[in-house]
Every structure is written in structure tokens, then in C-alpha cells.
Amino acid sequence: MKKKNRTFLLVLLALVILIGGSAILYSRLSSGYSAGVLTGEAPEPSATDEELPQAPEFTVYDLEGNEVSLSDFLGKPVVLNFWASWCGPCKREMPDFDSAYQELGGEVHFLMVNVTDGGRETVETASELIDEEGYTFPVYYDSDLSASTAYGVYSLPTTYFIDSEGHAVARASGALDMETLQAGIDMITE
After folding, report:
1. Would you state the torsion angle of the CA atoms of residues 106, 134, 180, 188, taken in this order, to the nearest 10 degrees?
2. Contact 156, 115 (CB under 8 A)
3. Residues 111, 97: Cα–Cα separation, whole Å
4. Greatest mean pLDDT range, 28-32, 52-56, 90-94
5. Considering only the top CATH level, what class is 35-189?
6. What pTM was estimated for this model as a whole?
């Protein structure tokens, strides 16, 4: 009986350490970064440009393997979306992103960043989905996971709205409908 109690206590202690360590790791990865959270309605601006956080720099790759950095897109607002081909909510929002890109692609950069882990998600599986659906927005591959790490992405889809000066204005987790996507775009284009 004592052996079972000792084993139970060791397992319980291991779980407490694991959960506590995860919380500490999450807080360290996400410290210093906070953008407004976007809901169905565009919130009132609560910060001046000086108070808005600078969006973290990252490097991703295009289909040919060329490096592309966030700083390459300064000067125009950016819609930064993290997604994967196996993600149902990601696939549900893609038609709206493609429509917005077709309408606003000259005014707003759309960075559709595939979280390419090399296991469950590969360049091939992601590219196949884009080709099958006929999407026209540009797709970039986060094959070293530096972009998703820089932004603390822990669920897909996640979208960030970045103004033309590189300030992170808002973020949204989960699939966006067209109304919410437009609200985010309005926040970075007005």
C-alpha cells in the first residue's frame, strides 16, 4: 500500500512540475508582446502609435525557398495569418481571406504563413490544399517555426493585424468570418 501511495505522489508531483513549467515557459515566450484582441466588433483605439508594440520580426520562405521577412512589407498594412492544411477552422476562413486579398491586395499585404512542422504539415500538403482550392493569396512557409514562436502561436488559426509602420494593432484566435476580418483590416487601414 505504501508503494502505491509513493508512486501516486511521485506522479502527482511530476504533473505539478510539468504544469508549472509550462506556465512559466508560456509567460516567458509571450512576455513583452501584447496586441489588442479582435472580436466581432472593432474596438475603440486605446493606444497611440507610440504605445503599440512593434510586431516581432521573422523570416519565412516562399514556395521556391527564398527568405521573406516581415520587414520586407513595411509601408503597407499587413494581415498575418498562421494556418495549417489539417486545421478545419483554417480551411473555413480561407475563402474570406482570398476574397479580401483579391479586393485589397494592392493596399494591404496578406501573409498567409503555413506552420510547416515537417511532420503533420509539410510544404507539399499545404501547397496541395492551396492548389486544389485555387487560392490566389501569397503563401509562406514557417519551416523552422521561427515566426510562430516569435508570435507565441499556440492555436490555429491565429491572425495578427499590423499597421503600415509595423505596429501590432490586434490579434484574433480562431476562424474569422468576413465581418471580423474586415474589422481588423479597418483597424490597420484607417
Report:
1. -20
2. yes
3. 10
4. 90-94
5. alpha beta
6. 0.76
